[in-house]
Known about the structure:
- The chain has a 4-stranded antiparallel beta sheet with strand order 3-4-6-7. Strands 1-5-2 form a 3-stranded mixed beta sheet.
- The chain is about 35% helix and about 10% strand.
- The chain is α+β, with helices and mostly antiparallel strands.
Amino acid sequence: MMQMFLLSCLIACLLFNAERAFTLPTEPTTPAPGTNTIDDDSPSPVIVKRARPSPPAGVTTYWVDCTDIRYPDIEDLCNVDCYAHLCLELPTTLQRNAAVIRSNRVLSGQGISPFSGPESRVEGYNVSRLDGEHNSAEEIPYASTSQGGAGDPEDIEGAGPPEFHAVIAGVTRAAQTNQGNMMSAFYRHNRIPQLGWFHIRYNSNSEYCIALNQWEDGNLTPQQREDICRKPDPPESDPIRRTFIKITKKGAGAAIFERAMRGFGVYQHLSKRGTKAEIPSHSGDEIARVEEETQSQTEEIFD
């Protein structure tokens, strides 16, 4: 009897040890979101404020064919867009967002059509156009993207600083219509959904688009960009003279614009990225006059 009892105890011990040996280890417990797992003696963790939405990796590239002869005046429009991207550093990776089109047009000033009508009306907004045909306001970035208008997807009412706002330039209505058709075709063909991201590039022979492509491909130095974007005495057709930013706040009454130029006004901070001593200044009398006038108007508006 005693032998049977001892044998039973031996078998039970062997089974218990075997069960322990083959039991899988349990997964470590994951702390609940927001739980501080740092030891009491450790320094407090740094809390980083949530950034604006960023584009995912590998977004579809939208190549705008500005050389297509079926679309008149498209090269001129592309040159204006590329100037804004290259010289004012406005984003080229955009998020489609049809919900903000109307508010973006209000914030940028595009909605009041400042380039249309008699010359006295155009001058009243402190903008200029090449001629009566260039009366349609091109907005960069597009009003149909989260980066248009106030340039801030988290605050489409425009509380952000003015350097984030979209800029506008007078182009022909035909150019804008053709651009819209090309973009709609891109959305459909590539199935870009609402809030989907895309990267825009330009197949163009225009000055600023060639330079923008060189910049994105790493074939343009910072100083070369400064020389292109801040050339002295640009002609009337140059986007430097034709691109404007609204400097009045929403609801401030009559809209007033100023030229959107690298190193001037709300874009003054961009000049710090080049070698300041070597950056050519704008010596044109007209640009100097407008800069002085708009600076005075800006002080009156925000005083």
